Amino acid sequence: MNLIETRDLAMAFNGGLIFSGVNVQVPSGKTVSIIGPSGCGKSTLLRLISGILPPTTGEVLFRGEKVIGPSRKRVLIFQNHALFPWLTALENIEFALEANGLAVEERRRQGMQFLAQVSLDKFSDLYPHQLSGGMQQRVGIARALSADPDLLLLDEPFASLDSVNRETLLFELARLSSESQKSFLLVTHDIEEAIFLSDEIYLMSGSPGRIVRRITVDIEKTEKIIDLKQSPGYLNLEREIHEFLFTNR
Amino acid sequence: MRIVQGLSPILVLILLWELCARFGLFNPIVLPAPSTVLVTLLEMIGSLELFVDAGRSLVRVLAGFTLAVMIGTPLGLLLALNQRLSHWFEPLIHFLRPIPPIAWIPLAILWFGIGDGSSYFLTMVAAIFPIILNVHAGVKSISRHHFEVASSFEASRGLILRKLVWPAALPYTLSGYRIGLGVAWMTVVGAEMVAARSGLGYLIHSSQDLLRTDRVLVGMMAIGTIGMLIDVLLRRTELWLAPWLNQR
Which residue in B145, B156, B247 is closest to A130 by CB distance? Predict the structure, then answer.
Protein backbone atom coordinates (compact mmCIF):
# COMPACT_ATOMS: atom_id res chain seq x y z
CA MET A 1 0.00 0.00 0.00
CA ASN A 2 1.14 3.52 -0.72
CA LEU A 3 1.83 5.69 2.27
CA ILE A 4 2.03 8.74 0.05
CA GLU A 5 0.52 9.31 -3.33
CA THR A 6 0.51 12.63 -5.12
CA ARG A 7 -2.00 13.40 -7.85
CA ASP A 8 -1.05 15.85 -10.56
CA LEU A 9 0.64 18.18 -8.12
CA ALA A 10 1.49 21.60 -9.48
CA MET A 11 2.98 24.58 -7.75
CA ALA A 12 3.30 28.19 -8.87
CA PHE A 13 4.83 31.14 -7.05
CA ASN A 14 3.97 34.69 -8.12
CA GLY A 15 2.57 33.39 -11.38
CA GLY A 16 5.71 31.41 -12.24
CA LEU A 17 5.22 27.65 -12.60
CA ILE A 18 7.72 25.68 -10.50
CA PHE A 19 6.55 22.20 -11.37
CA SER A 20 3.45 20.47 -12.66
CA GLY A 21 1.96 17.04 -13.20
CA VAL A 22 3.94 15.47 -10.39
CA ASN A 23 2.76 11.95 -9.54
CA VAL A 24 4.91 10.27 -6.94
CA GLN A 25 4.25 7.24 -4.78
CA VAL A 26 5.98 6.21 -1.60
CA PRO A 27 5.12 2.63 -0.61
CA SER A 28 4.95 1.83 3.13
CA GLY A 29 8.31 1.03 4.66
CA LYS A 30 10.24 1.92 1.52
CA THR A 31 12.79 4.58 0.72
CA VAL A 32 12.17 6.70 -2.34
CA SER A 33 14.44 9.36 -3.80
CA ILE A 34 13.80 12.25 -6.12
CA ILE A 35 16.80 13.37 -8.11
CA GLY A 36 16.78 16.57 -10.05
CA PRO A 37 18.79 19.66 -10.82
CA SER A 38 18.74 22.71 -8.53
CA GLY A 39 15.64 24.79 -9.05
CA CYS A 40 13.32 22.02 -10.20
CA GLY A 41 11.23 22.50 -7.06
CA LYS A 42 12.30 19.40 -5.14
CA SER A 43 12.34 21.17 -1.79
CA THR A 44 8.97 22.74 -2.49
CA LEU A 45 7.61 19.32 -3.38
CA LEU A 46 8.68 18.00 0.04
CA ARG A 47 6.90 20.91 1.72
CA LEU A 48 3.70 20.11 -0.16
CA ILE A 49 3.91 16.48 0.89
CA SER A 50 4.56 17.45 4.50
CA GLY A 51 1.57 19.78 4.37
CA ILE A 52 3.49 22.91 5.34
CA LEU A 53 2.57 24.44 1.97
CA PRO A 54 -0.66 23.84 0.04
CA PRO A 55 -0.28 22.91 -3.64
CA THR A 56 -1.56 25.26 -6.35
CA THR A 57 -3.42 22.35 -7.94
CA GLY A 58 -3.58 18.62 -7.39
CA GLU A 59 -3.52 16.79 -4.09
CA VAL A 60 -1.37 14.75 -1.75
CA LEU A 61 -2.83 11.58 -0.28
CA PHE A 62 -1.43 10.21 2.97
CA ARG A 63 -2.75 6.70 3.70
CA GLY A 64 -5.41 7.49 1.12
CA GLU A 65 -6.54 10.70 2.83
CA LYS A 66 -6.04 14.16 1.48
CA VAL A 67 -3.32 16.17 3.23
CA ILE A 68 -4.66 19.51 4.42
CA GLY A 69 -1.91 20.65 6.80
CA PRO A 70 1.31 19.69 8.52
CA SER A 71 1.39 16.55 10.64
CA ARG A 72 3.97 15.01 12.93
CA LYS A 73 3.38 11.80 10.98
CA ARG A 74 5.30 13.40 8.10
CA VAL A 75 8.35 15.19 9.45
CA LEU A 76 10.76 17.28 7.41
CA ILE A 77 14.52 17.13 7.89
CA PHE A 78 16.24 20.17 6.47
CA GLN A 79 19.48 20.47 4.60
CA ASN A 80 20.77 22.94 7.21
CA HIS A 81 19.23 20.72 9.95
CA ALA A 82 17.23 23.75 11.23
CA LEU A 83 18.00 22.96 14.85
CA PHE A 84 17.01 25.69 17.28
CA PRO A 85 20.34 27.35 18.17
CA TRP A 86 18.97 28.52 21.55
CA LEU A 87 18.19 24.98 22.68
CA THR A 88 20.72 22.29 23.57
CA ALA A 89 20.80 19.01 21.65
CA LEU A 90 18.54 17.41 24.26
CA GLU A 91 16.19 20.40 24.44
CA ASN A 92 15.81 20.36 20.66
CA ILE A 93 14.51 16.82 20.86
CA GLU A 94 12.40 17.66 23.88
CA PHE A 95 10.71 20.33 21.77
CA ALA A 96 9.30 17.65 19.47
CA LEU A 97 8.36 15.48 22.45
CA GLU A 98 6.63 18.40 24.16
CA ALA A 99 4.72 19.13 20.96
CA ASN A 100 3.62 15.51 21.23
CA GLY A 101 2.23 16.20 24.71
CA LEU A 102 4.73 14.32 26.86
CA ALA A 103 5.35 15.28 30.50
CA VAL A 104 8.67 16.74 31.64
CA GLU A 105 10.38 13.61 33.01
CA GLU A 106 9.19 11.49 30.13
CA ARG A 107 10.56 14.06 27.68
CA ARG A 108 13.95 13.97 29.38
CA ARG A 109 14.05 10.18 29.43
CA GLN A 110 12.94 9.66 25.83
CA GLY A 111 15.06 12.57 24.63
CA MET A 112 18.17 10.86 25.97
CA GLN A 113 17.10 7.61 24.30
CA PHE A 114 16.74 9.25 20.93
CA LEU A 115 20.10 10.96 21.35
CA ALA A 116 21.65 7.60 22.22
CA GLN A 117 20.18 6.18 19.01
CA VAL A 118 22.42 8.52 17.05
CA SER A 119 25.28 8.03 19.57
CA LEU A 120 25.12 11.58 20.85
CA ASP A 121 23.91 11.05 24.42
CA LYS A 122 27.25 12.35 25.71
CA PHE A 123 26.63 15.67 24.00
CA SER A 124 23.12 16.30 25.28
CA ASP A 125 23.95 19.62 26.97
CA LEU A 126 25.81 21.18 24.06
CA TYR A 127 24.28 23.84 21.86
CA PRO A 128 24.12 23.18 18.10
CA HIS A 129 27.00 25.55 17.31
CA GLN A 130 29.22 23.48 19.61
CA LEU A 131 28.58 20.36 17.50
CA SER A 132 30.10 19.40 14.15
CA GLY A 133 27.98 19.50 10.99
CA GLY A 134 27.50 15.74 11.04
CA MET A 135 26.49 15.74 14.69
CA GLN A 136 24.03 18.56 14.09
CA GLN A 137 22.41 16.61 11.29
CA ARG A 138 22.19 13.53 13.52
CA VAL A 139 20.46 15.58 16.23
CA GLY A 140 18.10 16.79 13.50
CA ILE A 141 17.35 13.19 12.56
CA ALA A 142 16.91 12.18 16.21
CA ARG A 143 14.53 15.10 16.69
CA ALA A 144 12.50 14.03 13.66
CA LEU A 145 12.42 10.39 14.84
CA SER A 146 11.28 11.44 18.31
CA ALA A 147 7.98 12.59 16.82
CA ASP A 148 7.48 8.96 15.75
CA PRO A 149 6.59 9.82 12.14
CA ASP A 150 5.52 7.30 9.51
CA LEU A 151 7.37 9.25 6.85
CA LEU A 152 10.62 11.19 7.03
CA LEU A 153 11.07 13.81 4.37
CA LEU A 154 14.74 14.57 3.85
CA ASP A 155 15.77 17.69 1.99
CA GLU A 156 19.36 17.14 0.82
CA PRO A 157 20.46 16.02 4.28
CA PHE A 158 24.05 15.35 3.23
CA ALA A 159 24.67 18.44 1.17
CA SER A 160 26.76 20.32 3.71
CA LEU A 161 28.72 17.37 5.15
CA ASP A 162 32.28 16.26 4.45
CA SER A 163 32.72 12.85 2.85
CA VAL A 164 33.44 10.88 6.04
CA ASN A 165 30.52 12.36 7.95
CA ARG A 166 28.35 11.90 4.92
CA GLU A 167 29.14 8.21 4.58
CA THR A 168 28.58 7.60 8.30
CA LEU A 169 25.21 9.29 8.10
CA LEU A 170 24.30 7.40 4.92
CA PHE A 171 24.84 4.13 6.77
CA GLU A 172 22.92 5.30 9.79
CA LEU A 173 19.98 6.18 7.58
CA ALA A 174 20.20 2.89 5.71
CA ARG A 175 20.18 1.05 9.05
CA LEU A 176 17.24 3.11 10.28
CA SER A 177 15.19 2.40 7.19
CA SER A 178 15.89 -1.32 7.28
CA GLU A 179 15.26 -1.66 11.03
CA SER A 180 12.13 0.45 11.23
CA GLN A 181 8.80 0.36 9.49
CA LYS A 182 9.20 4.00 8.55
CA SER A 183 9.22 5.30 5.01
CA PHE A 184 11.73 7.80 3.70
CA LEU A 185 11.40 10.30 0.92
CA LEU A 186 14.73 11.83 0.02
CA VAL A 187 15.37 14.75 -2.24
CA THR A 188 18.89 15.07 -3.60
CA HIS A 189 21.01 15.89 -6.59
CA ASP A 190 23.50 13.18 -5.70
CA ILE A 191 23.13 9.95 -7.68
CA GLU A 192 25.26 7.89 -5.29
CA GLU A 193 23.14 8.71 -2.24
CA ALA A 194 19.97 8.00 -4.12
CA ILE A 195 21.09 4.58 -5.36
CA PHE A 196 22.57 3.60 -2.02
CA LEU A 197 19.49 4.43 0.03
CA SER A 198 16.53 3.95 -2.25
CA ASP A 199 14.17 1.27 -3.40
CA GLU A 200 12.87 3.61 -6.04
CA ILE A 201 14.16 6.74 -7.73
CA TYR A 202 12.21 9.44 -9.52
CA LEU A 203 14.06 11.63 -11.96
CA MET A 204 12.95 15.21 -12.23
CA SER A 205 13.79 17.73 -14.93
CA GLY A 206 14.21 21.44 -14.39
CA SER A 207 12.24 24.61 -14.95
CA PRO A 208 9.40 23.99 -14.84
CA GLY A 209 9.98 20.74 -13.02
CA ARG A 210 8.27 17.50 -13.90
CA ILE A 211 8.83 13.84 -13.21
CA VAL A 212 10.44 12.28 -16.25
CA ARG A 213 11.19 8.79 -15.12
CA ARG A 214 10.76 6.24 -12.36
CA ILE A 215 13.49 3.70 -11.75
CA THR A 216 13.35 0.67 -9.47
CA VAL A 217 16.64 -0.03 -7.72
CA ASP A 218 17.04 -3.80 -7.57
CA ILE A 219 20.77 -4.16 -7.14
CA GLU A 220 22.34 -5.85 -4.16
CA LYS A 221 23.42 -3.42 -1.42
CA THR A 222 26.93 -4.02 -0.10
CA GLU A 223 28.55 -3.26 3.25
CA LYS A 224 30.69 -0.48 1.88
CA ILE A 225 29.82 2.30 -0.49
CA ILE A 226 33.14 1.87 -2.27
CA ASP A 227 32.26 -1.78 -3.05
CA LEU A 228 28.78 -0.82 -4.14
CA LYS A 229 30.15 1.82 -6.45
CA GLN A 230 32.26 -0.79 -8.25
CA SER A 231 29.53 -3.33 -8.77
CA PRO A 232 28.22 -3.66 -12.36
CA GLY A 233 24.62 -3.16 -11.28
CA TYR A 234 25.48 0.16 -9.66
CA LEU A 235 27.53 1.36 -12.60
CA ASN A 236 24.75 0.61 -15.07
CA LEU A 237 22.22 2.41 -12.94
CA GLU A 238 24.47 5.37 -12.39
CA ARG A 239 25.13 5.68 -16.13
CA GLU A 240 21.45 5.46 -16.90
CA ILE A 241 20.53 8.17 -14.40
CA HIS A 242 23.45 10.33 -15.32
CA GLU A 243 22.64 10.29 -19.01
CA PHE A 244 19.01 10.91 -18.36
CA LEU A 245 19.71 13.94 -16.20
CA PHE A 246 22.06 15.40 -18.76
CA THR A 247 19.75 14.91 -21.73
CA ASN A 248 16.79 16.33 -19.80
CA ARG A 249 18.38 19.41 -18.32
CA MET B 1 46.54 49.54 29.28
CA ARG B 2 43.20 50.46 27.76
CA ILE B 3 42.09 51.95 31.07
CA VAL B 4 45.21 54.13 31.13
CA GLN B 5 44.51 55.16 27.54
CA GLY B 6 40.93 56.06 28.35
CA LEU B 7 41.73 57.92 31.55
CA SER B 8 44.74 60.00 30.45
CA PRO B 9 42.86 62.58 28.35
CA ILE B 10 40.34 63.00 31.14
CA LEU B 11 43.09 63.57 33.72
CA VAL B 12 44.92 66.02 31.47
CA LEU B 13 41.70 67.91 30.87
CA ILE B 14 40.97 68.09 34.62
CA LEU B 15 44.50 69.26 35.34
CA LEU B 16 44.28 72.04 32.72
CA TRP B 17 40.89 73.02 34.02
CA GLU B 18 42.19 73.18 37.61
CA LEU B 19 45.14 75.33 36.54
CA CYS B 20 42.92 77.74 34.60
CA ALA B 21 40.61 78.05 37.60
CA ARG B 22 43.53 78.63 40.02
CA PHE B 23 44.89 81.42 37.84
CA GLY B 24 41.46 83.00 37.81
CA LEU B 25 40.99 82.63 34.08
CA PHE B 26 37.25 82.32 34.47
CA ASN B 27 34.50 83.12 36.92
CA PRO B 28 33.91 80.21 39.36
CA ILE B 29 30.16 80.58 38.84
CA VAL B 30 30.57 79.88 35.15
CA LEU B 31 32.95 77.01 35.80
CA PRO B 32 34.20 76.12 39.31
CA ALA B 33 37.53 74.39 39.81
CA PRO B 34 37.60 70.57 39.85
CA SER B 35 38.84 70.67 43.43
CA THR B 36 35.75 72.65 44.43
CA VAL B 37 33.52 70.16 42.64
CA LEU B 38 35.29 67.31 44.41
CA VAL B 39 34.71 68.88 47.81
CA THR B 40 31.04 69.42 46.97
CA LEU B 41 30.78 65.83 45.75
CA LEU B 42 32.19 64.50 49.03
CA GLU B 43 29.85 66.73 51.02
CA MET B 44 26.83 65.57 49.07
CA ILE B 45 27.89 61.94 49.49
CA GLY B 46 28.50 62.49 53.19
CA SER B 47 25.10 64.06 53.71
CA LEU B 48 23.52 61.28 51.59
CA GLU B 49 21.82 64.02 49.60
CA LEU B 50 23.22 62.67 46.34
CA PHE B 51 21.97 59.16 47.10
CA VAL B 52 18.50 60.37 47.94
CA ASP B 53 18.18 62.24 44.64
CA ALA B 54 19.77 59.44 42.62
CA GLY B 55 17.44 56.99 44.34
CA ARG B 56 14.36 59.05 43.45
CA SER B 57 15.46 59.23 39.81
CA LEU B 58 16.22 55.52 39.69
CA VAL B 59 12.86 54.57 41.16
CA ARG B 60 11.09 56.72 38.57
CA VAL B 61 13.10 55.23 35.71
CA LEU B 62 12.53 51.68 36.90
CA ALA B 63 8.80 52.27 37.28
CA GLY B 64 8.46 53.77 33.81
CA PHE B 65 10.75 51.18 32.29
CA THR B 66 8.82 48.31 33.89
CA LEU B 67 5.59 49.70 32.46
CA ALA B 68 7.25 50.02 29.05
CA VAL B 69 8.48 46.40 29.19
CA MET B 70 5.08 45.12 30.27
CA ILE B 71 3.23 46.99 27.54
CA GLY B 72 5.89 47.15 24.82
CA THR B 73 6.96 43.49 24.78
CA PRO B 74 3.55 41.93 24.10
CA LEU B 75 2.75 44.76 21.69
CA GLY B 76 5.94 44.11 19.70
CA LEU B 77 5.19 40.37 19.62
CA LEU B 78 1.61 40.93 18.52
CA LEU B 79 2.57 43.35 15.76
CA ALA B 80 5.23 40.98 14.45
CA LEU B 81 3.04 37.88 14.54
CA ASN B 82 -0.25 39.40 13.39
CA GLN B 83 -0.12 40.89 9.92
CA ARG B 84 -3.55 42.52 10.14
CA LEU B 85 -2.83 44.19 13.46
CA SER B 86 0.46 45.52 12.16
CA HIS B 87 -1.27 47.08 9.14
CA TRP B 88 -3.54 48.94 11.57
CA PHE B 89 -1.04 50.07 14.14
CA GLU B 90 2.38 50.38 12.55
CA PRO B 91 1.72 53.79 10.95
CA LEU B 92 0.59 55.12 14.34
CA ILE B 93 3.76 53.85 16.01
CA HIS B 94 5.99 55.32 13.34
CA PHE B 95 4.19 58.63 13.75
CA LEU B 96 4.56 58.73 17.55
CA ARG B 97 8.12 57.41 17.66
CA PRO B 98 9.97 60.49 16.34
CA ILE B 99 8.35 62.75 18.96
CA PRO B 100 11.09 63.24 21.58
CA PRO B 101 10.00 62.05 25.03
CA ILE B 102 10.59 65.50 26.51
CA ALA B 103 8.08 66.96 24.05
CA TRP B 104 5.49 65.05 26.06
CA ILE B 105 6.33 67.04 29.23
CA PRO B 106 3.60 69.69 28.84
CA LEU B 107 0.95 67.01 28.32
CA ALA B 108 2.37 64.93 31.17
CA ILE B 109 2.09 67.87 33.57
CA LEU B 110 -1.48 68.55 32.45
CA TRP B 111 -2.45 64.90 32.86
CA PHE B 112 -0.47 63.81 35.89
CA GLY B 113 0.67 67.05 37.57
CA ILE B 114 4.08 67.81 39.00
CA GLY B 115 5.60 64.71 40.61
CA ASP B 116 6.09 61.00 40.20
CA GLY B 117 3.12 60.36 37.90
CA SER B 118 4.54 62.59 35.18
CA SER B 119 7.97 60.99 35.48
CA TYR B 120 6.56 57.47 35.26
CA PHE B 121 4.63 58.43 32.16
CA LEU B 122 7.54 60.20 30.47
CA THR B 123 10.07 57.43 31.10
CA MET B 124 7.51 54.90 29.91
CA VAL B 125 7.04 56.86 26.66
CA ALA B 126 10.80 57.08 26.28
CA ALA B 127 11.46 53.37 26.76
CA ILE B 128 8.50 51.85 24.98
CA PHE B 129 9.38 52.59 21.35
CA PRO B 130 12.85 50.99 21.30
CA ILE B 131 11.27 48.01 23.03
CA ILE B 132 8.39 47.61 20.59
CA LEU B 133 10.62 48.06 17.56
CA ASN B 134 13.34 45.68 18.77
CA VAL B 135 10.94 42.91 19.78
CA HIS B 136 9.28 43.32 16.41
CA ALA B 137 12.59 43.14 14.55
CA GLY B 138 13.63 40.15 16.66
CA VAL B 139 10.55 38.15 15.72
CA LYS B 140 10.89 39.16 12.06
CA SER B 141 14.49 37.91 12.09
CA ILE B 142 13.43 34.33 12.87
CA SER B 143 14.15 31.90 10.05
CA ARG B 144 11.13 30.57 8.15
CA HIS B 145 12.66 27.11 8.55
CA HIS B 146 12.28 27.26 12.31
CA PHE B 147 8.58 27.98 11.99
CA GLU B 148 8.29 25.13 9.50
CA VAL B 149 9.98 22.77 11.94
CA ALA B 150 7.56 23.80 14.66
CA SER B 151 4.50 23.34 12.48
CA SER B 152 5.89 20.06 11.20
CA PHE B 153 5.82 18.81 14.80
CA GLU B 154 2.35 20.34 15.26
CA ALA B 155 3.64 22.46 18.14
CA SER B 156 0.96 24.44 19.98
CA ARG B 157 0.93 28.24 19.88
CA GLY B 158 2.06 28.34 23.49
CA LEU B 159 5.02 26.06 22.80
CA ILE B 160 6.00 28.05 19.72
CA LEU B 161 5.86 31.27 21.72
CA ARG B 162 7.85 29.88 24.67
CA LYS B 163 10.50 27.80 22.95
CA LEU B 164 10.78 29.44 19.53
CA VAL B 165 9.61 33.04 19.25
CA TRP B 166 10.69 34.27 22.67
CA PRO B 167 14.24 32.83 22.76
CA ALA B 168 14.86 33.51 19.07
CA ALA B 169 13.92 37.16 19.51
CA LEU B 170 15.61 37.49 22.90
CA PRO B 171 18.91 39.07 21.73
CA TYR B 172 16.93 41.81 19.96
CA THR B 173 14.51 42.13 22.85
CA LEU B 174 17.32 42.60 25.36
CA SER B 175 18.95 45.23 23.13
CA GLY B 176 15.59 46.96 23.06
CA TYR B 177 15.42 46.88 26.86
CA ARG B 178 18.95 48.23 27.11
CA ILE B 179 18.31 51.08 24.67
CA GLY B 180 14.94 51.75 26.28
CA LEU B 181 16.40 51.99 29.75
CA GLY B 182 19.15 54.28 28.47
CA VAL B 183 16.68 56.65 26.83
CA ALA B 184 14.46 56.51 29.92
CA TRP B 185 17.39 57.53 32.10
CA MET B 186 18.13 60.51 29.87
CA THR B 187 14.46 61.43 29.86
CA VAL B 188 13.97 61.29 33.62
CA VAL B 189 16.55 64.03 34.04
CA GLY B 190 14.68 66.23 31.60
CA ALA B 191 11.38 65.39 33.22
CA GLU B 192 12.64 66.20 36.71
CA MET B 193 13.95 69.57 35.59
CA VAL B 194 10.41 70.67 34.85
CA ALA B 195 7.90 68.26 36.24
CA ALA B 196 9.28 67.18 39.64
CA ARG B 197 10.57 68.53 42.94
CA SER B 198 13.24 65.89 43.55
CA GLY B 199 15.72 63.69 41.72
CA LEU B 200 18.98 64.39 39.91
CA GLY B 201 17.29 66.48 37.21
CA TYR B 202 15.68 68.68 39.85
CA LEU B 203 19.03 68.86 41.65
CA ILE B 204 20.91 70.32 38.70
CA HIS B 205 18.06 72.58 37.70
CA SER B 206 17.55 74.06 41.18
CA SER B 207 21.32 74.36 41.72
CA GLN B 208 21.55 76.46 38.60
CA ASP B 209 18.94 78.82 40.04
CA LEU B 210 21.12 79.13 43.16
CA LEU B 211 24.24 79.69 41.04
CA ARG B 212 25.75 76.56 42.59
CA THR B 213 27.50 75.39 39.44
CA ASP B 214 29.59 72.96 41.49
CA ARG B 215 26.40 71.12 42.46
CA VAL B 216 25.27 71.15 38.84
CA LEU B 217 28.50 69.42 37.87
CA VAL B 218 28.20 66.86 40.66
CA GLY B 219 24.68 66.09 39.47
CA MET B 220 25.85 65.65 35.90
CA MET B 221 28.62 63.33 37.01
CA ALA B 222 26.16 61.22 38.94
CA ILE B 223 23.83 61.05 35.94
CA GLY B 224 26.66 59.93 33.68
CA THR B 225 28.01 57.37 36.11
CA ILE B 226 24.65 55.78 36.83
CA GLY B 227 23.75 55.70 33.11
CA MET B 228 27.00 53.92 32.38
CA LEU B 229 26.49 51.40 35.18
CA ILE B 230 22.97 50.61 33.98
CA ASP B 231 24.32 49.86 30.51
CA VAL B 232 27.11 47.62 31.80
CA LEU B 233 24.68 45.77 34.05
CA LEU B 234 22.27 45.08 31.22
CA ARG B 235 25.03 43.87 28.92
CA ARG B 236 25.96 41.33 31.58
CA THR B 237 22.33 40.26 31.81
CA GLU B 238 22.27 39.63 28.07
CA LEU B 239 25.09 37.10 28.30
CA TRP B 240 23.46 35.43 31.25
CA LEU B 241 19.97 35.18 29.74
CA ALA B 242 21.12 34.08 26.26
CA PRO B 243 23.94 31.60 26.98
CA TRP B 244 23.82 30.14 23.46
CA LEU B 245 25.26 33.40 22.16
CA ASN B 246 28.30 33.25 24.44
CA GLN B 247 30.80 31.00 22.72
CA ARG B 248 30.22 32.16 19.17
Answer: B247
